Amino acid sequence: MSLPSVSSALEERVARALSIGTGLPAPEGEAATAGNEAAASSLVRWIDLIASWNARIDLTAARTDDELVDLMVADALVIAAHVPRGARVVDVGTGAGAPGLALALLRPDLALTLVEPLQKRVSFLRNTIGALLQSEALGAGGRARAPFVERGRGEELARRRPAFDVAVSRATLAPARWLEMGAALTAGAAAPEVWVLLAKEEPPVLPGWEVEADLRYRWPLTSAERRAVRYLRQAPGSTASPPTVPEVT
Ligand SMILES: C[S@@+](CC[C@H](N)C(=O)[O-])C[C@H]1O[C@@H](n2cnc3c(N)ncnc32)[C@H](O)[C@@H]1O
User: How many A from CA of 2 to the centre of ligand 1?
Assistant: First the structure.
């Protein structure tokens, strides 16, 4: 099934954001971000749906089209360059889909669970995933499974002791609280990781977890300063090593 056409201005914006990127190099040996045409066109479809639903329900506070594209895509681009192949990833407080749905579109090998308590946002996410599946934007390319939308709060899910490999969240809980919750959500994984996405705040500290990478970058279209911090669980008896701080070009 084909979807109605979207504006070429949006297509150009998304293509520009993907081509500029965040200035961070992808780590060697890790799965690269899918900066290909399929990912770009599904990102455009999703952002176009946000713009049309946002006229009826409150989905985003973005004030300009550049901000909307950066807000939805840029942090996911950074995470997508690092997350291990085939990982089970949870995004707590997905809202309109950032960063979890963007991550699913950029990395079809990942199994995403999107957690959101508000019914109207859950409806948006389920409708969008359904539309993308029907148009095959989400169905092609060796995808493990379609992103799953769980209506509820991160606290409730954490109490059920799920075994996600990777936990991400943005603008939902205070950073220290999120790091604790992310640790609980990944407690059953062999090599868990938690991502804390920040603007200018300092990264939180949690005993038993170390900062593996502290990535500073700028959003491609608006140049907003961002920071994505990747935490790994420390092996028993290990001492923390200094984090990687790549330069932004
Ligand atoms: C400010 S929005 C951020 C949405 C998205 N992550 C982003 O950065 O664009 C916060 C979202 O988290 C949801 N939320 C708030 N508390 C939550 C909780 N304890 N567990 C899961 N989601 C929560 C809200 O309903 C809202 O959709």
Answer: 31
Is 95 part of any domain? yes
Q: Token pair of 175, please?
A: 């950073």
Residue 31 located in a structural domain: yes
**Structural domain span for residue 116:** 8-233
Position in ligand 1 atom list of the atom nearest CA 95: 27
- Asked whether 113 lines ligand 1 (CB < 6 A), one says no
The answer to the question of residue 242 being in a domain is no
Q: For position 26, what pLDDT does the model report?
A: 75
Return phi, psi of residue 90, to 5°: -115, 135
CA 244 to chain centre: 20
ipTM over 0.95: yes
Instruction: Read off the pLDDT of residues 119-162 as tens digits, 9 standing for 90 and up.
Output: 999 999 999 999 998 876 665 555 658 999 999 999 999 999 89
The pair of three-digit structure tokens given for residue 198, joined into one six-digit string:
């920040």
Cα 185 to ligand 1 centre (Å): 16
Report CA(116)–ligand 1 centroid distance (Å): 6
Cα separation, 101 vs 5, whole angstroms: 21
CATH number, domain containing residue 205: 3.40.50.150
Query: How many domains in the chain?
Result: 1
> Backbone phi, then psi, for 196, in 5-degree steps?
-115, 120
Per-residue pLDDT tens over the stretch 46-88:
999 999 999 899 999 899 999 999 999 999 999 999 999 999 9
Four-point Cα dihedral 148, 151, 155, 159, nearest 10: -70
Kindly state whether residue 44 falls inside one of the protein's structural domains.
Answer: yes
Ligand 1 contact, 171 CB (< 6 A): yes
